[in-house]
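debug: dumping io for the single-chain case to check the tokenizer round-trip. Nothing else runs in this session.
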Amino acid sequence: MSAEGGTKAIIAALAANLGIAASKMVAFAFTGSSSMLAESIHSVADSGNQGLLLLGRKRSERDRTPEHPFGFGRERYFYAFVVAVVLFTVGSAFSLYEGYHKIRHPEDVESPIWAFAVLVIAIGMEGFSFRTAIKESNQLRGGHSWWAFIRRAKAPELPVVLLEDAAALIGLILALFGVSMAVATGDGVWDGIGTVGIGLLLGLVATVLAIETKSLLIGEGVDAEQEKRIIDALESVEQVDHVIHMRTEYLGPEELLIAAKIAVYHDDTAAEVARGIDAAEAKVRAVIPEAELIYLEPALDEADRRNPAKPAGKATGEV
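debug: decoded output
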């Protein structure tokens, strides 16, 4: 994901959520609706989350240190995980508590016109933020489905913003439903039901985010398709017979570590092997630009399986 694209989506979401949070607070003050209060807290939590994503991006750009020789790229994963925790504890838990309280002790919604006006405006603002996130994501997801994009993305910001915005739009619809039913029936229990729905929705989104960002934080490697491209690039070099084994891990969204043991030919000199390693690294970076760190270990004792595509002189293995 480009830094510019991710930042643009985060800032759009932050601006929308700050405006929405303020308008919802005003609506809650006039209506006393628990759905409006839950949505207000939701928007405040989302605004804080976007701030955390921007902070994580900034901190990840620090230079390497002796204590952190691979840099700070995973700061972005850490802060994305914190976002999931905040969304669950602040957004979901509060909404569930407020909804339960409202169902036990229902109250009439006062001045509902404020709630309806603010919710309609908020849906428009949230829709703008969601549209921005979709537009930026479409530049990266290719032919993959949205769920596959969220699962495969190594940069956490766009998936987080996408899920937050989707949850926000659905939450606004739930709030609109709860307030509308409470006004239509005169029963404040519906307001509480809408609030509980918002809490359950936020809990689900927070769980998905926590699972995905936890996996990135622990350390993910490339997928099967990328692994094949890396191996093909390595084995396309004349001095490499085959890849014995390989390990990969993302140190950050734009920094991939590759460590591989490669079989070389017995009759190659050290200089030839060194040239082959340099060529192999260049070919890998050509197909996987984020391959910042590549460590290749040449081996002789397992270079017995000969690639028929290699030159005949190399295939004999004669010393």
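debug: round-trip ok. The CA atoms of residues 1 and 140 lie 7 Å apart.
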